Sequence to fold (380 residues):
Amino acid sequence: MRAIALEKASGRPVLKDDHPEPVLHAPDQLLIRVLQVGICGTDRAIVRGEGGEPPPGDGYLVLGHEMLGEVVSAGNAAAADYEPGDLVVCTVRRSCGQPECPTCAHGESDMCYTGKYVERGIFHAHGYMTSRIVESTEYTVKLPEELRPFGVLMEPTTVVEKAILESVLVQHRLDWVRSLDDSSAIARDWRFVRRALVAGAGPIGMMAAFLLRHHDVETHVTDVVPEDGYKASLVNSIGARYWNVSKTPAAEIPSQVGNIDLIVEATGIAPVAYELLNALGVNGVLVFTGVPGDRGGEFQLQGGHLMRQQVLWNQIVMGSVNANRSYFVQAVKDLSEISRKWPDALARVITGHHPLEDYEVALTTQPKDEVKAVFDIPDV
Fold:
C-alpha cells in the first residue's frame, strides 16, 4: 500500500509502495478508506527536520494528521454506530495510558500531564497520508454527507474550537459573563468576545475567522499579503475585516476599531506573537496556537511595559494545542452551519489539490495564496 512517509535514516520524504495493509484486530475498530489529507505547517516542519518521530521500531513515519475518510468495514462493537460508506474524521493525539494522568483518563489527551501521548503522523504513530487506516471509534467522529466537500478542514477547525472555547471559559472570571441561569449555557457563552483579532490568514487563522463570524463576533484578521489579494478577499467575504500589517501594525488597530477582547495567534512566529500583546485590550485574552519552528526565531523582548499592562489591564496569555474528541463533535455542528451560511467562501479555503506523486513539491513549497492544500488519495 502506498504512503507518503519521512525516512528516519535520510530525513527525506518518500512515496513508499510497501506500507502494510491495515487489518481490524479489535471489536471497536473501523477500517477506513482515506479520501483526503490536509497538508499542514507541521507536516512541512517535520520534513524540514523540526520534529517527527516514527513508531518505535519503524524506520519511517507516515505523515499527515488532517484527514477525511469513509468507513469500509467495522468491528462487531463499532458496527452498532458505523456502517460502510459513513463519512468520518479521526483525531490526532492518543492517550498516554498512564494511571497518574487524570486528563487522559477522562478523554482529554490534548491536556496530557505526562507527555507520553502519541500523535498520528507526528509522534510515535503513523499518520493518514496513505490509502487505508484502522482506527478505534474512541478517536473517530462521524460527519454528515453535506460536509464531504469540506470535511478535510475539520482538524484545523477543532484547533480553534478548543482555543476559543478555552478563552471563553477563562472569562467566567468576569461576573457579567458567568451570571447566566443554567450551566450548559455558560459553557458556550460568547458574550465577552465582542471584538476579536486573528493573527495569520492561513488555515488555522481562516477557520478561526469563520468560527468567530459564525458567532457574530466583530472579527479582524491580520497578515502580510496585499489588501486586494486572495486571502484578503476571502476574509472580507464573510464579514470580517482584513488588515495588512506591513501597512498597519497590529498595535495600531485598536485605536481605529476599539478594545480587542480576544486575539487568536495563528502565525507560529514568536516575535510576531508576542508583539500582539500591544494590541490586546482590557480584560483580554491572547491565545497562542502556533508552534514556532525555524521561522519562530529567538528574540529579545523589553517586557516591562507589557508586564505592567498585563497586570493593570487583567490580561491573560495562554497556549492551546490540538483538540480532543469533544471538540471534533462540536466542530461537526459548527462546520455544518458554517457550510450552509458561507458555502462558496468555505470552498475557497481549499486552494490546492495534489496527487500523492506531488509529495515532494507539496511538502517543501507553499504558493503565495495557499490557504489549505490537500492530497487526494486514490482508491487503490
Summary: DSSP finds 13 helices and 19 strands in the chain.
